Amino acid sequence: MADGIWEAVDRYFLDTIVGQDAALAEAQRAAEAAGLPPISVTAAQGKLLHLLVRIHGARRVLEVGTLAGYSTIWMARALPPGGTLISLEYEPRHAEVARANLDRAGVSGVVEIRVGAALETLPSLEGPFDLVFIDADKENNPGYFQWALRLSRPGGVIVVDNVVRGGKVADPASADADALGVRRMVDLIAAERQVAATAIQTVGGKSYDGFLLAVVNG
Ligand SMILES: C[S@@+](CC[C@H](N)C(=O)[O-])C[C@H]1O[C@@H](n2cnc3c(N)ncnc32)[C@H](O)[C@@H]1O
């Protein structure tokens, strides 16, 4: 199976049921025009995050890794009235592009972007959050997951993107720093009685990867 067919199928569902509007498409165009790396979630994945926020009835959402705010917009649009989202981003330039995108999408009133290294901004946050989406530098995933646990309410949902790393995650000999970050986080989750978790491999417009889904035991 080639990436081409995965892209074509993603495109088919995008054109039929995913429903990406002009503001979301423009957010991707603005990110590209500003020279940001093309590493956001796909539209299908963005819609999945949107649906998770809705299914869970999440009112307070935390995101680690904003980039141009593409996933942020999908999740912010799923919030109920009074809901809020905090997104953490290291690069001031990314945050600037994201803020303009959030404005265009009409969600800047419910989203706050905090600029800085997430391990330094996380301690200043007050929980509890209903849903946390982790999608920043994978090396720091263990620290991000520990913070997500600390800041989540009982029953809270934690989603971690890009946990497959082209299969390197399952290779104990891999020296890839990102895969090692994911493996250390998985070890931590495996030893943690406070969460129930699974991981799903995915293919699509961004090739082969996967995400981890966890719920904090009540
Ligand atoms: C994969 S992108 C996020 C994509 C975004 N969630 C989306 O799907 O639209 C990862 C982002 O994390 C940011 N990042 C990297 N290291 C970070 C750190 N230490 N603290 C906070 N953000 C960081 C990067 O600058 C980048 O914008």
| Alpha-carbon Rg, integer | 16 Å
Helix content estimate:
40-55%
Class derived from helix and strand content: alpha/beta
Overall pLDDT confidence:
97
Q: SSE order in H/E notation? A: HHHEHEHEHEHEHEE
> How are strands sequenced across the largest beta sheet?
3-2-1-4-5-7-6
Work out the number of β strands.
7
Q: How does the overall form come out from the CA principal axes?
A: globular
Q: Note poorly predicted spans.
A: none
Strand content is 15-25%
End-to-end distance:
41 Å
Biggest beta sheet summary: 7 strands, mixed
Q: List the total number of helices.
A: 8
Ligands bound to this protein structure? S-adenosylmethionine
Characterise this structure.
With 218 residues, the protein is of the alpha/beta class. Helix content is 42%, strand content 24%. The chain has eight helices and seven strands. A seven-stranded mixed beta sheet has the order 3-2-1-4-5-7-6, sandwiched between helices. The N and C termini lie far apart (41 Å). The model has no long low-confidence stretch (mean pLDDT 97). S-adenosylmethionine binds next to α4 and β2.
Quick summary of this structure?
This protein is an alpha/beta fold and 218 residues long. The chain contains eight helices and seven strands.
